[in-house]
Amino acid sequence: MLTIAGPVLTLAGCRPATARTPAAAQLPTGCPVPATDGALPDRGRLAALRARGWWTPAVLAAGVLVTLLLTRRLLSRLRVRSASRLPLTVPGGTLHTRTLEQALTERTTSLDGA
User: Fold this and answer.
1) Rg over CA atoms, the chain
2) d(CA 111, CA 104)
C-alpha cells in the first residue's frame, strides 16, 4: 500500500505547485486559504511563536526524533531473521538448521552427476 500511496500522494502534491492558477482556487472547501503574500500560516502567529526561544529548536528536535524512530523501525523490519532451530513432530525435538544444511550438502555431493 505504501508503495502505491507514496507516488500517488507525491503527484497529488506536485499538481498545485505546477498549476498555472493560484493554489487557493484549487483547494477544497474548508481548507485554510493562503494569505495574500502566499504564506499558508498566519504571519503574525508564526512570528509570535518564533519569538519564543524554544519554538524552533523544539520543532527541529521533534522532526529529527520522529525521523530517527521511523528509520529505526524501517531497518528493524528489513532485517531478515532466520530460525536457527526447526521444531520436529517429536515432543521436545528440534533440528539445527546448520545440521540440516550439512546433511543436505553431503547427500547432494554423493549423488551421481552432481
Assistant:
1) 29
2) 11
Residue 46 cell numbers, joined: 508564526
Q: Which of 109, 107, 87 is nearest to 97 (CA)?
A: 87
The residues near 88 (Cβ < 8 Å, ≥ 6 apart) are 94, 95
pLDDT digits over 8-42, tens only? 988 887 776 776 666 666 667 777 666 666 566 67
Q: How far apart are CA 114 and CA 110, in angstroms?
A: 8
How far is 30 from 49, CA to CA, in rounded Å?
24
pTM comes to 0.41
Residue type for position 88: L
